[in-house]
Amino acid sequence: MIRSLEEEQNAKLFISASVALCALLAIAGCAKSEPAAAEKPLDPLSITLTDPDLIAGQATWGATCKTCHLTGLTGAPIIGNHEAWAPRIAKGLDTLYDHALNGFIGPDYTEMPPKGGFAELSDEQVKQAVRFMTHLSQ
Ligand code: HEC
Q1: pLDDT band for position 60 (50/70/90)?
Q2: Which long-range contacts (CB under 8 A, 24 or more apart) does 43-50 make?
Q3: Most CB contacts within 10 A, which of 16, 45, 95, 137?
Q4: Is the pTM of this model over 0.90?
Q5: What is the whole-number distance in angstroms between the Cα of residue 76 and the centre of ligand 1?
Q6: What is the best residue among 83, 85, 112, 124 to mutate for testing ligand 1's pocket, by most ligand atoms within 8 Å of CB?
Q7: pLDDT band at 4 (very low <50, low <70, confident <90, very high)
């Protein structure tokens, strides 16, 4: 079959357009199969912070509060869980400081022990850990 030059060019154009479309669809397909960032579990200790106050809170948290607040041990609200933290953050920082320093038993009879059971922590260290935990849980 003899084709005119124009027909031949049209055919080539059609092929390259199809190739480009396939490539686009492949990329779109790839992007879809990537897990969304929000689905990745939060790793509070590998988060890079710039505020020295939060960095200090992160260190204290990692050495003490993490025991319960990373996994929810004994019913502790898990760091980064917005739903669990929203009603607590709504109480205001002063109340949260008081409960973290002096202990608190919630409506479900789960207990936040005074200073998480780490009596050697200074009040300021506990407050910094509270600020770090609420910062990541907003
Ligand atoms: C032994 C486990 C445990 C450790 C360790 C621990 N917590 Fe908790 N924490 C809990 C539990 C359980 C609750 C939930 C209490 C409730 O509301 O019933 C809680 C709740 C809290 C709350 C919310 C209080 C409120 O009024 O809603 C704050 C703030 C808090 N912890 C801070 C800390 C800080 C800061 C540390 C580290 C210095 C820490 N916790 C260590 C178990 C722990």
Answers
A1: very high
A2: 44/70, 44/79, 44/80, 44/132, 44/136, 47/136
A3: 137
A4: no
A5: 6
A6: 112
A7: low
Run of H or E residues at 58: helix 52-63
Give the other-Cβ count within 10 Å of 92's Cβ.
Answer: 10
Counting residues of the chain whose pLDDT is more than 90, the rounded percentage is 70
Q: Determine if ligand 1 sits within 6 Å of the CB of residue 78.
A: no
Work out the number of other CB atoms within 10 angstroms of the CB of residue 33: 6
C-alpha 34/C-alpha 44 separation (Å) is: 22
The residue ranges of every structural domain in the chain are 5-34, 52-137
With a 6 Å cutoff on the Cβ, whether 64 touches ligand 1 is yes
Q: Kindly tell me the sign of the dihedral angle through the C-alpha atoms of 40, 38, 95, 121.
A: positive
pLDDT digits (tens, 9 = 90+) for 127-137: 999 999 999 99
Please give the CATH architecture assigned to the domain spanning 52-137.
Orthogonal Bundle (1.10)
Distance from C-alpha of 114 to C-alpha of 118, rounded to nearest angstrom: 8
Q: Residue 54, Cα to own-chain centre: how many angstroms?
A: 15
